[in-house]
Amino acid sequence: VLLTKNLGLKEHHLPLLSCLLGNSLIPAELLFSFHKKLRSGLQPSGHNPVLDIMPRICMYVRPQKTQYSMLARTALCDDTKTDFLQAIVTRYTLSAVDEFWNLSSSQAIPLILITPLR
Predict the structure, then answer these.
(1) From the CB of residue 34, how many other CB atoms can be counted at a distance below 10 Å?
(2) Which residues neighbour 108 within 8 Å (Cβ) at sequence distance 6 or greater?
(3) What pLDDT is stored for residue 100 in this prediction?
(4) Per the confidence metrics, is the pTM higher than 0.70?
C-alpha cells in the first residue's frame, strides 16, 4: 500500500509497473533503450538506477486505459510485441497469482523485485 500511495498508483497498476521495470519474463536487456531514454536529463542518485527512473515509468502506468501497442513500441522498441506485453502483464495480475498459489485475494501480497541495470 505504501509503494502504491507514494507513486500515485493503484494495486492493479503493479503488474504493468513490474513489467516496465524488468522482471523474470521481460528481461532488462529488452528494456535497456527505454530505461536509457528515461534516464536522460536525470541526475543519478548513486543508488539503483531503476529507482531513479521509477517516477518516470509511473507516468506510463497511470493512465486509466493501458495502451499496450504504444507501450510495446516505446518500452520494447517493437510494436509487434503488443500481445506479448499484454500477456505478460496479465500473467502478473493479482488474480493470476492468486490462482497459481490458490490463495484468496485477502491473502495475496503483490511483490515487485527491482534489479539493477547492467
Answers:
(1) 20
(2) 94, 97, 98, 101
(3) 55
(4) yes
